[in-house]
Design goal:
By secondary structure, the chain is an alpha+beta fold. 66% of the residues lie in helices and 12% in strands. The protein has 12 helices and 8 strands. A 6-stranded mixed β-sheet has the order 2-3-1-6-7-8, with helices on both faces. Strands 4-5 form a two-stranded antiparallel ribbon. Helix 12 links the parallel strand 6 and strand 7. The protein is elongated and about 95 Å long.
Length: 378
């Protein structure tokens, strides 16, 4: 929903947006409960009266009920593999399903008014209020969904009340408008407080997992990502050549600026799907999925060489060109990692890095996972 009218309701932080949508789709017991009540009530009215309107609305309620349950189950199945764009789409799907179900319930009340079916109106309006209360419980998560759904839900009842000549019905319709505005205010306050707490939680998590200077993931975040890896991955350790003289000559502010520029170049090198992290000082780590076998080794070597080449290009520090270099140690891992094997992999790639440094810098060195031996990569 990056484009269009509803884009302003989407939270700009993808991680918070995903968590909010995850929370929307945790409502299966609540949805099942209102589905059962709505189907029972609408089918009862259709059977008792044999009215084509009741029958059509009952069918719409059943179809919508099934669709909502299916969407909740499918989201749970695919949630871990969804892109940020997919998450936005699923938020729209939830909103559309909730609004369609609300419209069907509102239509049931409208039809009862049309038929002068007082017991039917009582049942239908009771179902509408139950659904409305259930939706308000989601107000803190996605208020725009709640407000859209309740508006669609209450609109048919409001119209039916205004169409009646009796003043109490018309007054009741006006009260429904006031009721919706009270939901709007409650939703706004609940959502503001909830989002602020969620943002604070994510900010603290980011501080714990990101380097404050370069905004790259830190050592802890890299290790967590490495632990989660499956398949074949390239692990590249990068250490800057000649960083200390620049820091001593131009000052710590220039050194900090240089590290930020290094972080940007490494992020560009590793690309989408990869991870660049700062381990501390002027040492960085790259992690990226690669193909298995010889192709994966070629990809890993190309990544390491590109990182070294990129960092050998001049940097501008307050319009002063500065040239440093970098050394790299690399390894391709295709085995599941335990705590012990992860420590061993990191030890090997670190040894490869310092072998490259001892060779004069500006080069890449392989760490052979089988025997811990080192081999110059060029």
């Amino acid at each position: 929903m990056g484009h269009g009218l509803l884009s302003r309701f989407i939270h700009p932080n993808p991680a918070i947006r995903r968590e909010l949508v995850d929370l929307l789709y945790t409502s299966l017991p609540q949805v099942m409960s209102i589905n059962a009540a709505a189907i029972t009530g609408s089918v009862t009215l259709a059977v008792l009266h044999g009215d084509p309107g009741y029958i059509a609305i009952s069918f719409a309620i059943i179809v919508n009920a099934i669709g909502r349950v299916v969407s909740l189950l499918r989201y749970k199945q695919y949630a871990g593999r969804l892109s940020d764009r997919d998450v936005i789409l699923w938020e729209k799907v939830y909103a559309a399903g909730a609004a369609a179900f609300g419209l069907a319930l509102g239509a049931l009340t409208f039809r009862a008014f049309q038929l002068n079916d007082a017991p039917g109106a009582w049942i239908a309006f009771g179902l509408s209020m139950s659904y409305c209360v259930g939706m308000v419980s989601r107000a803190a998560i996605r208020p725009w969904v709640v407000l859209t759904t309740t508006a669609v839900l209450l609109a048919p009842t409001l119209v039916a009340g205004l169409m009646r000549p009796e003043l109490p019905y018309q007054l009741g319709a006006v009260l429904l408008v006031l009721f919706w505005f009270s939901i709007r205010e409650a939703s706004r306050h609940l959502s503001t407080a909830f989002i602020e707490r969620l943002e604070a939680k994510h900010a603290l998590a980011r501080q714990a997992n990101h380097d404050f200077l370069t905004d790259l993931p830190n050592r802890a975040a890299f290790l967590a990502a490495l632990e989660r890896t499956t398949g074949t991955v390239a692990i590249v350790a990068i250490d800057l050549d000649g960083f200390k003289p620049v820091n001593d000559r131009h000052g710590h502010h220039a050194g900090d600026d240089l590290l930020r520029q290094v972080a940007a170049r490494l992020s560009s090198c590793v690309g989408r799907g990869g991870l660049a992290a700062r381990f501390g000082g002027d040492e960085f780590m790259l992690l990226k999925p690669v193909a298995s076998g010889a192709d994966g080794r070629d990809e890993a070597l190309a990544l390491a060489r590109e990182a070294v080449r990129s960092l050998s290009m001049p940097f501008l520090l307050s319009d002063i060109p500065v040239v440093i270099g970098a050394s790299a140690g690399l390894l391709v891992n295709d085995r599941p990692l335990t705590d012990e094997s992860m420590d061993e992999v990191l030890r090997q790639v670190d040894s490869a890095l310092y072998a490259a440094k001892r060779a004069g810098g500006g080069c890449c060195t392989w760490a052979e996972a089988a025997d811990g031996g080192l081999r110059q990569a060029g």
